[in-house]
Amino acid sequence: MTIETTGAARRAQIVSAWSFDVFDTFLLRACTTPDGVFERTYELSGISRICPNVSVSFVQHRIQAEGRARRAAKDQRGAVEVHIEDIYSFFPFNLFGLARRDLSDLVESEFAAELELCRANPDMLRQYQDMKQAGHRVGFISDTYWDSGRLARLLRACSPGLTWDFLYASCDHGSGKSETLFAKYLAEQGVDAHASCHIGDNEHADVRGARRHGIRPRYYPQSSRELASKLQRETSLFELLCPGVPSRLDNGMRTLRRMMAARSVEKSPAFHLGTMVLGPVMTAFDAFIAERCEQVAGPGRRVALGFLGRDGFLSHRIWQDLHGATSAYLEINRRVSLMASADTLQPLLEFLPKITKFDAPTFRDMVKVLPPKVAAFFAGSPNGIVTGEALTEALPGLMESSELLVLAAILRARLLAYLRHAIPGFDDCTDLVLADLGYSGSVQKALRRVFDLEGIKIRLHGAYLISLDDSFHDVAEEDSATGFISDLVITPHAKRMLARNVALLEQACCSADGSVRDYDGGEVLREVNPHAAGQIALAAEIQAGARAFAAGAGDVARDFSLQPYDAPDVAARWSAATLARLLLLPDEDELALLGGLKHDVNLGTQALAPMLDRDFVRNQITARGLSAACTSAGPPMWLAGSFALTSPSHAYLYTLFGANRLPADVFEESPCGMVQVGLFQAHGEAVLEQVAIHRTGLGELRVRIPVSRAMGIAMLALPLPKFAVEGLLHGVTMQSAGDIREAAASQDVIGIAAESLVFAGMQRNGEHYRSDSEDGCLLIPVVPLAREIAIYSVAITPLGARPK
Q1: Rg of the chain (C-alpha set)
Q2: Which residues neighbour 50 within 8 Å (Cβ) at sequence distance 6 or greater?
Q3: Are 141 and 180 within 8 A, CB to CB?
Q4: CA gap 299, 506 in Å, rounded
Q5: Helices and strands (DSSP H and E) totals, the chain
Q6: List of long-range contacts for 178-185, beta carbons under 8 Å, 24+ apart
Q7: Are strands 386-387 and 431-436 parallel, antiparallel or unpaired?
């Protein structure tokens, strides 16, 4: 009985408490990273007017001042905790046109920035109130340079009426949570550690610090390590693609993404990709489309909105989810629109070069007729296949314009019947907004010609996710074309890098239906979708994740008082960085998830092109050099991803090249010596030729050996140990053409099979080789040449001796 009474008395004396970390837990900031507060301080303090365009310097000096203040405190007091005034005492006032008397103004400006950017986390606020109602003591423990008075002001500004039982700011006590602050809290509050819990986002201070004092920690990270890595890459790309603009103030777009991630249910990697990457971009694009429609609308105007299929499929679904059935999904592609708009052969001649290879059935399916001369042209070509360029050159002599014009008029009538079926009240419309991924407005321009031929006065307004703005010079005067990610958001040079890799985005956004080939009574006649069922399912899962983000983003933004899309230019820049991160700097998980996708050219053929090809990139670098490899035409369609498969650093070098930040004199090759190569003819005779050795900016060596068909060379003998007794052989390639200049520039690079190479007098293990003397040789077989000239290129990384 005595024991039971003692236990009950003890339980009655136990004081339980819940403590909350403040920043990045109970309070969140509407900026990309905590130092966004410093960027906003730069603006609020007026320094941005005194010293414009130096926000990066201000932020870095503010960070450095804090570091110096903490080091000084450590030296003087043995602790690193400081107040905000201590930090600014180390700030370089003169550099920014200030005097030391301005210290208090800077402090107040930074606090004003905190008041503006901080938001109460509704998830944490609910837990806080639940614990308070349950009878627990609740309060805050924060590692911060803001004293408890300012911290209290900030908390109540974010959550009016908020009360607490305790509030500890580390700067007031000279110790942080990783040191003795938790112990002081337990002692002063009379709290039983084992009956208490602390919630925070810092694994070291909030989790380990609490656990060391017997307090149960609850970890509340802002984002997973994987998402944090993606966000860090996005910031790097933002600063690369959008120089000179604030890189931390995003109106809360990143905070919205982090909170959406925290609230989302764990699903498939494809769904997660849609939620965290594609969803934010397409939701911002949706806001841009809505604003574009409002701009077009006006007195006496009746505006319709249509999303162009197939790439506009996801955008249309998001619009339906957010705005209801107020738009049309228009299945119109370049091929159909150009054919319908033809009043001469010219539109067809402009279109055909976009198709790599043609056969007669494909031409008949596209043009609806196969004139005898055209059929004979195909029949006289190898395997009945010709290139689009060859057909373009020959077609004016094979086909009469009148034949095409009759077919164009028929298709035009069917297209207009389809538009009247798809867009209610089509003939009463004054304006039609066409939403699409982009890029040059070819469908919009073709529709303009169709409307003009039929006397239809509807104005056309393109609203494109990505625009190649110099392509809009010939848009009709009464029409318009605007890009969300325009050349005012990122430079035209960088834009073309995105466009080169945009096939990945197209496959993720397009519908599961095949491409339109014709219309019948207002209905769409489609081709068979050539994609595998697995790719269609993967795209659907990505789209489901993107739609989930769009559906939930509005509520979460309201919960956290965020306005991520209120400033279109800011939203466009961060959308560009988010999209560019996926397209240009994918991580290994994304490469594994998306690497098997194939791209259909959507031009009337069933051809599928690979997205990724690591060997292609390696061979291009070996044969042509890094910069030339960066300009390679497809396939592979996802060139940046192919660079990323080679290595993450190769992907970043490709990105630097696309942003015009890759200096050729650093990364291109320069001569560093000569070597004699043996050229052996089939009957055994040999000659020696001197060839140059080049060193690249990546430390690799290149040797290029030209041979002619007339020489009859059967084997090349390259004495590798003469200039590198040990190394890594990255590959041997061959290019051929009619002359040496053409061969050197050719993208048609053939990799020589590793098993056909002979390492005479050398030890070999995979790519690694080693020789104990200079007598070894790499023997390279020469295949019979179909062209006059061939260039064999060898790429190695030396690990031993280098040329002198």
Answers
A1: 33
A2: 96, 97, 98
A3: no
A4: 36
A5: 34, 29
A6: 178/143, 178/204, 178/205, 178/208, 178/209, 179/79, 179/209, 181/141, 181/143, 181/209, 182/141, 182/209, 182/210, 182/212, 182/213, 182/215, 183/213, 185/19, 185/141
A7: unpaired
pLDDT value for 11: 43
Residue in the block written with tokens 């080169």? 500
Any residues with CB less than 8 A from the CB of 684 and at least 6 apart, and which?
Answer: none
Burial class (CB in 10 A: 0-12, 13-18, 19+), 753: exposed
CA 644 – CA 519 distance, rounded (Å): 42
Of 392, 393, 374, 394, the closest CA to residue 384 belongs to 374
User: Taking a C-beta distance cutoff of 8 angstroms, is the pair 758, 694 a contact?
Assistant: no
Distance CA 547, CA 271 (A): 10
Among positive and negative, which fits the CA dihedral 550, 551, 552, 553?
Answer: positive
User: Distance of CA 627 to CAs 493, 630, 794, Å?
Assistant: 14, 5, 17
Helices of type H across 631-730:
639-646, 648-658, 664-667
CA–CA separation, 776 and 753 (whole Å):
20
What tokens does 156 get? 């109540």
Q: How far is the C-alpha of 310 from the C-alpha of 330, rounded, in Å? A: 8
pLDDT of residue 605: 53
* CB contact at 8 A, 548 and 264: yes
Alpha helix (H) residue ranges in 342-400 = 346-351, 360-367, 372-379, 388-394
Tell me, what amino acid is at 776?
A: G
Q: Which amino acid is at 714?
A: A
DSSP annotation string for 235-277: HHHHHHHSTTS-SS--TTHHHHHHHHHHHSPP--HHHHHIIII
Structure tokens at 596: 């098997």
Q: Render pLDDT for 430-439 as a digit per residue (tens, 0 to 9).
A: 999 999 999 9
* Distance between CA atoms of residues 724 and 17, nearest Å: 68
- Indicate the pTM of the whole model: 0.91
Both structure tokens of 606: 């069933």
The set of residues, in sequence order, having a beta carbon less than 8 Å from that of 731 and lying 6+ positions away, is: 618, 619, 622, 751, 752, 754, 794, 795
Q: What are the tokens at 794?
A: 């060898």
If we measure between CA atoms, which residue out of 652, 716, 698 comes closest to residue 797?
A: 698
Rounded Cα distance, 110 and 36, in Å: 10
As given in the structure block, the two tokens for residue 433 are 């907004």
Q: How far apart are alpha carbons 171 and 795 in whole angstroms?
A: 58
pLDDT for residue 445: 96
Contact 423, 429 (CB under 8 A): yes
Compute the distance between CA of residue 653 and CA of residue 659 in angstroms, rounded to an integer.
10
Give the pair of three-digit tokens for residue 530.
Answer: 């050539």
Is 371 exposed, middle or buried (CB count within 10 Å of its CB: 0-12, 13-18, 19+)? middle
- Give the DSSP letter of residue 467: -
Nearest of 332, 350, 453 to residue 395 by alpha carbon: 350
- The CA distance from 420 to 436, in Å, is 20
82 residue type, one letter: V
How far is CA 159 from its chain centroid?
36
The percent helix, strand, coil of the chain (3-state, each to 5) is 50, 20, 30
Report the share of the chain in percent with pLDDT over 70: 97
Report residues of the chain scoring pLDDT below 50: 1-13, 603-604, 803-804
Please report the pLDDT score of residue 25 as a whole number: 96
For residues 772 and 157, give the distance between their C-alpha atoms in angstroms, rounded to a whole number: 75
Residue in 574, 578, 580 with CA at minimum distance from that of residue 252: 574
Element (H or E) spanning 560, and its range? none
Position 10 scores a pLDDT of 42
Both tokens of 91, joined, read 């700030």
